[in-house]
Amino acid sequence: MESRLRGVGVSHGVAIGEVRHLGTAVLEPPAGQVSARDAPRELGRARRAAEAVAADLVARGTLAGGEAQAVLEAQALMARDPELIADVARRIGVGATAERAVADAFAAYRALLAGAGAYLAGRVADLDDVRNRIVARLLGVPVPGVPDSDEPYVLIARDLAPADTALLDPALVLGFVTQEGGPTSHSAILARALGVPAVVALPEAGDIAEGTLVAVDGSTGEVVVAPGERERAALARAAAGRRAARESPAGPGATSDGHRVPLLANVGGPADVPAALAAGAEGVGLFRTEFLFYEGGAAGEGFAGGAAEPPGEDVQAAAYRRVLEAFPQGRVVVRVLDAGADKPLPFLPGAGESNPALGVRGLRALLARPDVLDTQLRALASAARGLPATLEVMAPMVADRADARAFAESCRAAGLDAAYGAMVEIPAAALRARALLQEVTFLSVGTNDLAQYAFAADRQVGAVSRLQDPWQPALLDLVALAAEGAAAEGRGCGVCGEAAADPMLACVLTGLGVTSLSMAPSAIPEVRGVLARHTLAQCSRAAAAARAADTAEEARTAAREVLSGEAPLTAG
Ligand code: PEP
Ligand code: MG
Predict the structure, then answer these.
(1) How far apart (Å, rounded) are the C-alpha atoms in residues 293 and 380?
(2) Residue range 345-387, pLDDT digits in tens
(3) Which candidate, 22, 5, 20, places its Cα nearest to that of 213?
């Protein structure tokens, strides 16, 4: 019997296939006692196992490359973390076996991580995987992992560990569904990097029997269990259409009648550049610099909690330069550090707030620590010196004109020879787009946070994901306000939130007047292909039809009808 489940779609596309579950048994070593005489031997075993796992993770990373490599190397740092090893040694010192000490030390650290905000909680799956790998090696048993299958399948897991996902063969794995995780979990990030559809935060997925046929829609978050004949045919047509769009020739983004919409990549650092280039990105529309602050801190300590101090000017400049060098003819829009809320950093204010998403985060945190902002802006100025790429810098979480002015003044004071812009992530910024543009020269709409703040719906909470749907007509209204304000001032207004990665929505955004689209590199080919099949007038009609709807679902349907030519031409 056909049934429908809904989670959070985090990687676009449709996958149809049989379910295989990831083995998720948590390895629980028996409690044993070792004598003080045997403790050094146990500690040696634990150290060797941790080191072997770290080396294996690094090797898997080298094989996988790209974003997966950075994730696996971060996991290797977990296996080598001196504080964790010290805790293991302490436990062995009071009689624990090596395997029990590792399991308990990791469990203690897991509890800390799980309670430290959504961003760090998202790393829990990574930590569990490292623990399982070390314990399995000590016990001499296989690590629970991806199923063996020669036939393509849809993978269902509680959550996915990067070491498994990194080596998944995209030809065999048609898509992912996870019971846990959110849009920022590694399952989501890696699914997007692999370019396979994925749905997360669907607890009921654990109950779907092995071998059941499912259809996964990574755009809507819908999973159809045992789809009927008609549903299967419709989904297969949609999937074939998407494949055809992805295979469209490369080139600059434009509608079929030649209206240019540059297609840019969202990157987290130099490791993502090859994928962006391979997808034909015309530049970078969002360089999320916070990853550098989490992984590349000056002292290198605190692998997952962020370094105690920000990386120095030279370390930052080197990373920025590598991205700028990759796009000699293109724009590179760098977002200054966006920390706080779900991404806390020890050296920024805001810790302990009762409502951190509404507290000192993003630009607010940087204005409270001007030295951190100035160092980053100076690093950007020095990285861009002598390079042909067009550097642009933007601030996250700009609320009003005063914020925009403060950021512009900081950019000028740092001697930055670059355009500076404001992200529109707070409804007030969309409402007052023209005022912001008296201070900065461009806008970039962050639809993820804009939806969160417009609908009072935490972007990490699966239960309110309906309100996080970027097709919500009220969200489209806010994007339209920002784009119209920018047009009235003769300025550009891009979109760099997840909305830009949905090909049909990309057409709608174009119709709303958005001037560039930035997305995960894997989404670019399909967005390019779908955009190239529609005129600007069709996009405008689709936008009007979507805005006239009352729900996200109706907006999607209305736009689809216009774009597929099924709607009367008078629509909108
Ligand atoms: C957004 O909020 O839409 C955005 C692009 O920023 P991030 O997802 O990094 O918060
Ligand atoms: Mg944001």
Answers:
(1) 14
(2) 878 877 778 888 899 999 999 999 999 999 999 999 999 999 9
(3) 20
CATH number belonging to the domain at 3-24+145-229, selected among 3.40.190.10, 3.50.30.10, 3.20.20.10, 2.60.40.10: 3.50.30.10
CA of 379 to the centre of ligand 1 (A): 22
Q: Which residues are catalytic?
A: 186, 496
Multiple choice CATH, 257-535, 1.10.10.10, 3.40.50.970, 1.10.540.10, 3.20.20.60: 3.20.20.60
- In the block, which residue shows the tokens 């044993």? 32
Residue 73 token pair: 């190397």
Q: How far is the CA of 498 from the centre of ligand 2 (A)?
A: 10
Task: Report the distance separating Cα 467 and Cα 228, nearest Å.
Answer: 29
pLDDT tier at 30, thresholds 50, 70, 90:
confident
Task: Write out pLDDT tens, residues 448-470.
Answer: 899 999 999 887 776 777 888 88
CA Rg value for the chain: 24
Establish how many alpha carbons lie within 13 A of residue 317's alpha carbon, considering only the half-sphere containing its beta carbon: 14
Nearest to 190 by CA among 146, 232, 222: 146
Ligand 1 atom closest to Cα of 396? 6
In the chain, ranges of CATH 1.10.274.10 domains:
36-139
Query: SS3 of 468, please?
Result: helix
Q: Which residues line ligand 1 (CB under 6 A)?
A: 286, 288, 338, 425, 446-449, 496-497
Type of residue found at 432: R
Whole-number Å distance, alpha carbon 272 to ligand 1 midpoint, is 17
With beta carbons less than 8 A apart as the criterion, state whether 437 and 410 touch: no
Length of the chain: 572
